Amino acid sequence: MQQFSHQHRRVGIFIDVQNMYYSARNMFGSKVNFGNIVKAGIGNQQLVRAVAYTISTKTGDELPFFEALHKMGIEVNMKELLEYEGGQKKGDWDVGITIDIVRMLDMLDVVVLVSGDGDYIPLGEYIKNRGRVFHVVSFRESTSGKLIDCADVYTNLSDNLGQYLIRDPHYRPQTHRASSPTDTFSDVIAEQGENGALQKHEKQPPQYLLQKPRINSHESQKEEKVTGEKKQRGRPKKKNIQQENK
Length: 246
Hints:
- By secondary structure, the chain is an alpha/beta fold.
- The protein has one domain: Rossmann fold (3-Layer(aba) Sandwich).
- The protein has helices spanning about 15-30, 35-40, 65-70, 95-105, 120-130, 145-150, 160-165, 185-195, 205-210, 215-230, 240-245; strands spanning about 10-15, 30, 45-55, 75-80, 80-85, 90, 110-115, 135-140, 155, 165.
- The strands form 3 sheets. Strands 4-3-1-7-8-9 form a 6-stranded parallel beta sheet, with helices on both faces. Strands 2-10 form a two-stranded antiparallel sheet.
- Strand 3 (about 45-55), helix 3 and strand 4 (about 75-80) form a beta-alpha-beta unit.
- Mean pLDDT is about 75; it is low at about 175-205.
């Protein structure tokens, strides 16, 4: 793992909770150890702020999780899940995280983004153009390759899963996915693909083109009769002239 050795560098850590949560659950059947992720992002630098961005639900089931983040010294920014008339749900923090980083950039030397979402590539370019270090932390399997290329420093959490995951011994992959009030459309598709609910198949011709047509006995006899008639057609055979004279 790459860590900075500059003790006087000011670092801000920004965590896309939804992105990390679904990555850990879908790929490893586990929960994320956000406390250890923050420690890895800080290294031996000076932490200015560590902020987690997440979604709140009407049931309030996530409140214990928020309290745990607070005890780790992580601030929590939450917003309610948006539901539209057509049934579509939206709960991402891309714009909110970007705005907060831009606002805080003057007081930071290093920006640590905990997410694998490729939508943050323009933000990374902006951070570097302002002379700051752009550090990405994520699971490599669910991270945009272009985002990794954009980063000055990249930490792959998959290199040490024991440190960054909290295993759930009762977890079982779902054959059919149960919906969650915190899901966005992209989350549903990603999880269905991981659980095998959505599988990629090579395109095959329709079944009716692969099946041979069935012919009943009456049609078969009719076909044989027609075939026989066709065989008899053609150039007539020469008659024996001697036999005709007789």
